[in-house]
Write a structure and sequence with these properties.
- The structure is a single chain.
- The chain has 2 helices and 11 strands, in the order E-E-E-E-E-E-E-H-E-E-E-E-H.
- The protein has 169 residues and is of the alpha+beta class.
- The protein has one domain.
- The protein has a 5-stranded antiparallel beta sheet with strand order 3-4-5-6-7, covered by helices on one side. Strands 8-9-10-11 form a 4-stranded antiparallel beta sheet, with no helix packed on it.
- Strand 5 and strand 6 form a beta hairpin.
- It is globular.
- The protein starts with a strand and ends with a helix.
């Protein structure tokens, strides 16, 4: 862990460097993207135990035929020294995770997430779902978007994603 002081506010901050991704053929870029795969991070907090966790989603192409796979890892700040793989079969998840891997890679960057009441939530707009990761139980749920999730909302997320993609190029 390293410490630094913000020069304007004189506030003391600390930061922690996460272990490198696995497999080792992934590399960092502004979007954490390369031809072999995509690395996405989601940050969560468990209020009842005061623990912070990072969910790492590795999506990668298995072969030249376009088959994709996912690997999920977690890292508990202050406890883990390396990524712990989750024993999750992407085909058993409550959303089409392999399509999510493909879509995430082809859209360059994915939407952001929010942590609320011990769950990390993000929108998978193509399947009209909110994906929820229970940080404590390390399980996934899918919540259908409401019937009134209209085109205006979709346009907002599309515009936001286009702006983010432009920044990541």
């Amino acid at each position: 862990m390293a410490w630094f002081v913000h020069p304007l506010t004189l506030t003391l901050f600390s930061y922690l460097t996460l272990p490198p991704e696995s497999p080792s053929n992934f590399h960092h870029s502004p979007c954490n993207r390369n031809p072999q795969g995509l690395v996405t991070y989601r940050f969560g907090y468990i209020p009842s135990t005061n623990e912070y966790k990072v969910l790492q989603i590795l999506s990668f192409r298995l072969d030249s035929d376009g088959k994709w796979d996912l690997q999920f890892n977690t890292f508990t700040l202050g406890r883990d020294s390396w990524w712990r793989p989750l024993q999750v079969d992407p085909r058993d998840l409550p959303f089409d995770a392999l399509a999510y891997a493909y879509d995430s890679h082809n859209n360059l960057c994915t939407y952001g997430s929010v942590c609320l009441n011990g769950a990390v939530l993000w929108i998978y707009e193509k399947q009209k779902l909110i994906v929820a990761f229970d940080v404590r139980g390390e399980t996934f749920k899918a919540i259908p978007l409401s019937e009134d999730y209209d085109k205006e909302s979709a346009d907002y997320f599309d515009l936001t994603n286009q702006q983010t993609n432009a920044e990541c190029r």
